[in-house]
Amino acid sequence: MSTTSFTLSATCGKARTGVIDTPRGQIRTPAFMPVGTAATVKAMLPEQVRATGADILLGNTYHLMLRPGAERVAKLGGLHRFMNWDRPILTDSGGFQVMSLASLRKLTEEGVSFASHVDGSRHMLSPERSMEIQKLLGSDIVMAFDECPALPADRARLEQSMQLSMRWAQRSRDAFGDRPGHMLFGIQQGGLEEDLRGQSAEALRAIGFDGYAVGGLAVGEGQEAMFGCLDFAPDQLPVDKPRYLMGVGKPDDIVGAVKRGIDMMDCVLPTRSGRTGQAWTRHGVVNIKNARHAEDPRPLDEACTCPCCTGYSRAYLHHVYRSHEMIAGMLLTWHNLHYFQQIMQGMRDAIAAGSFDAWEAAFHAGRAEGDIERL
Ligand SMILES: [Zn+2]
């Protein structure tokens, strides 16, 4: 099969479940995408990431273009071969990181020139260059190049930025061309303003994309404001295409987003937390470095079936974390990714069964009971 498609199989309220078919495999939605910034999901082998239930990874255009370079990855057979992951990969456009990580930025109609945070070398990212890099990497889902302003921003700034992003969306579409088996997603902007989001959605629909991202959220506005925006933003996008909320989030952010009609998400949280001694569980966060775990023979979560919880005690995890052993980050990352994928599976099943509200109530009840540090 050389084409892609999105099939919705059930809805429950605004929550949706379905499947994105790609030549590299199916992506069950709602989907959580672990982040493989530098062509690796840190501390995990690709087959281990797959074993947690991930159907797709995210790779970062900005990081990979600077090191090792997109042309080098292409020469070595593309990102899938390079990192030994043969399932779908989504790459971001580089627009977000160039604004958050690079220095000496110069923003023009053409694109953004900047200095690398790695070695200070000068680079240029434009819609055309971003499409070229994502093609060189071989990504299955390509993101349009956009500008992501930090919030809070005044309305004039948001409007100007959104309109620039829509012109860049058209240029991204033109540069992407016709690539059967690959998808191009447009990115809605407009901050928290309903009318600007609506104008952005209209512009993107007129161009036509294979999927639509809600961009410019999870940039410091807080959960309440984000949910307020998600109460209308997904509804402005086509019903029959996947909707992707970029850079989200904590488990309760993810559940709240799916409830509001989001199909895909990504976040560094489960992997980053794993390396800093934090485990996400049904009851909340466990800080494994705390002394109270030093002699605790119980696993992180007695109901969890991941290799960390079936094989290791909190006392062991506390010991290896305190001793700076690599296995601490490996086991905690595995548990966290497993837990996030369990949430996604739970939501997919509940939406299919028409019982999302009951599932959501149980999810929140489990967390309310647990200031986990008291357990
Ligand atoms: Zn576990």
Topology:
Blueprint: E1 5-12, E2 15-22, E3 25-29, E4 31-34, H1 46-51, E5 57-59, H2 61-66, H3 70-75, H4 79-83, E6 89-91, H5 95-100, E7 103-107, E8 112-115, E9 122-125, H6 127-137, E10 141-143, H7 155-176, E11 183-188, H8 194-207, E12 211-214, H9 223-230, E13 243-245, H10 251-259, E14 264-267, H11 269-275, E15 278-281, E16 284-287, H12 307-311, H13 314-322, H14 326-353, H15 356-368
Parallel strand pairs: 4-14, 5-6, 6-10, 10-11, 11-12, 12-13, 13-14
Antiparallel strand pairs: 1-2, 2-3, 7-8, 8-9, 15-16
Helix pairs in contact: 6-7, 7-8, 11-14, 13-14, 14-15
Explained architecture:
This protein is of the alpha/beta class. The protein has helices spanning 46-51, 61-66, 70-75, 79-83, 95-100, 127-137, 155-176, 194-207, 223-230, 251-259, 269-275, 307-311, 314-322, 326-353, 356-368, and strands at 5-12, 15-22, 25-29, 31-34, 57-59, 89-91, 103-107, 112-115, 122-125, 141-143, 183-188, 211-214, 243-245, 264-267, 278-281, 284-287. The protein folds into two domains: 5-267, TIM Barrel (Alpha-Beta Barrel), CATH 3.20.20.105; 274-374, no CATH class. Helix content is 41%, strand content 19%. The strands form four sheets. It has an eight-stranded parallel sheet. The longest helix has 28 residues, at 326-353. Zinc ion is lined by residues 300-301, 304, 306, 308-309, 335, 338.
Named CATH topology of the largest domain? TIM Barrel
Biggest sheet, spatial arrangement of strands: 4-14-13-12-11-10-6-5
Largest sheet: 8 strands, parallel
State which percent range the strand residues make up.
Answer: 15-25%
Percentage of helical residues?
40-55%
Total count of domains:
2
* Secondary structure: number of strands: 16
Shape: globular
What's the rounded overall pLDDT mean?
Answer: 95
Bound molecule types: zinc ion
